Amino acid sequence: MSGQSITDRITAAQHSVTGSAVSKTVCKATTHEIMGPKKKHLDYLIHCTNEMNVNIPQLADSLFERTTSTSWVVVFKSLIATHHLMVYGNERFVQYLASRNTLFNLSNFLDKSGLQGYDMSTFIRRYSRYLNEKAVSYRQVAFDFTKVKRGVDGVMRTMNTEKLLKTIPIIQSQMDALLDFNVNANELTNGVINAGFMLLFKDSIRLFAAYNEGIINLLEKYFDMKKTQCKEGLDIYKKFLTRMTRISEFLKVAEQVGIDRGDIPDLSQAPSSLLEALEQHLASLEGKKVKDSTAASRASTLSNAVSSLASTGMSFTKVDEREKQAALEEEQARLKALKEQRLKELSKRPSFATTDTSPVSTTGGTISTAPAIDLFSTPSCSNGALKMESDLFDIQQTFNPSVQASSTGLPVATAWAGYSTASQAPPPGALQVDFESVFGAKATGVNNIDSDDILKPTMVGSNQALCSINQLSDKLVGDDLDSSLANLVGNLGIGNGTTKK
Length: 501
Prior knowledge:
Blueprint: H1 6-18, H2 21-29, H3 39-49, H4 56-66, H5 72-88, H6 91-99, H7 115-141, H8 161-179, H9 191-222, H10 227-256, H11 272-285, H12 295-348, H13 435-438, H14 481-492
Pfam families: ANTH
Protein name: Phosphatidylinositol-binding clathrin assembly protein isoform X16
Organism: Salmo salar (Atlantic salmon)
């Protein structure tokens, strides 16, 4: 089955609806496509492990959930994504995995959908066992063997005897789980298993380098150990020789599938005379009769063995450094490409118009940004367009009854229309409003207003005649609220100290 399935698309859509970008990316990294997880999805998940606001347990649970699928492709890719995050993600991801009591329960996994499913199920069971062992190892020693500092002052070289004898068996268990993947070149037939094999190959180099340094430290301390420690150390060394043979076979498979020869380290076997010297030393501690050996010959044998193992360690370290350098160069190239793409996008963006040409600042006859006038505030306008110095309801203030037209011809916004244009400027002249006519009743006092009458203000007609404020008219000027309000003030007699009767 190739390509994203309907199930993949539906699951991704569900996560889009719920807003879970992490779960959606996990789904996209573990589709039914028979290929390794896409780099962009893995990179995003790595980024998530470095973000403090990302829930690591939720991320891990999303990966575990995908391993419950019946498809070998989805399950295998889930294991690969998990392994990738353990290697390249933030350490808190592997810390969480190590804190769990159980990880992958795939020891009985079997995809019966076809012959390929049967074949790949075997490797899924082996792969999951290695990842479980990798997490358990971290739990036991609180660090990742593939990431520890190496060299003369490295972690495994500076460890004391007691801790060393407890730590090396943990490396051996993880190394055994890795080598138990046991794949042949003719079984690496698709992109999924190839992606998993590459991660195992890189782990094997780093893991064996730490293993090798632990053995060097053990040999340097061997002839100063107690009898029980020597017995443990001899057993560890014999197992190391066996695993050195197995790792060399594993590396041959890598060479057969096209991994560059320069990326495969050289293994230098320690001289067989070393094993014999170790056995004789233990026998002498146990009181058995052995052939005599001088301290000088023993030191010479040990020196040769350490030199050979150190050469092997250097070879593994160089390969690891080349791989890291290649990854660094690839990342720099990717960042450079992103930068160039960003510059191109910026150069293609259209330049924005300045405020001089902005449509908001134009004086056309269709758009005006003049604010509506608040009926209960003191209206004012610059350039003499409208000047009222007092509140309409403050009888202590004086009022200038004349309302002059603006010399600049700017529009005056009415309270109800909310907008005007330059072409609608009123002709010069005064406004005339009859207070009694506005409210539909003539009375001698303001208390006789008929509240049932309704104001229906509209725009002032361009042809409407405007009369002087001093010439009172009984005719209702209902088409202009501004005029009505001005007339109201005039009728109240504000400013001249008299009241109209």
